[in-house]
Amino acid sequence: xxxxxxxKIDELRWVRAxxxxxxxxxxxxxxxxxxxxxxxxxxxQAINCTDSGKDGxxxxxxxHLYVLANKEHxxxxxxxxxxxxxxxxxxxxxxxxxxxxxxxxxxxxxAVDHFKEVKNKLHLDKVFWITNYPKHSExxxxxxxxxxxxxxxxxxxxxxxxxxxxxxxxxEELGHVEPTTEAAxxxxx
Length: 189
Fold this sequence. Notes:
Blueprint: E1 13-16, H1 25-29, H2 38-48, E2 50-53, E3 56-59, E4 63-69, E5 75-84, E6 89-97, H3 106-121, E7 126-129, H4 134-138, E8 163-164, E9 169-170, H5 179-188
Parallel strand pairs: 6-7
Antiparallel strand pairs: 1-4, 2-3, 4-5, 5-6, 8-9
């Protein structure tokens, strides 16, 4: 099916995934402005999709990976979000759909309907969508937050390397990275 031939997004169904291995790489590759490699995406998902405990391997309750599959069980899109258990909020990290299913905003409506369903089922408070294209999301009921995502790169943008927030916190005051976090980051590299 070519991009010009429009497929019906409503014919796809949501399926929670145990692994990102079932997601075709082109769906990750088409994500614009991503700051990670396709390989790192799959490594990260392999570490975080499941939990192992006394009951064996289970789905991680705070890490949600869903695929959109057609009648032939072919994956045509995916959605990745996390749940903050303290604030009871959903944070959408990635939503990628095969271009044939975009349907002039129909794909976003499909995602928003899924957000509502999960939000209600899990009694969540808010849904945050991290996006580089906020105007598109605003057309589907999202609004800009009072909070703003800030980015720190460690570069000398203000002439004071290692300073955050106008010099109130210096890098040496932050201490070292927790060993388990450091190990997890090295394992995913």
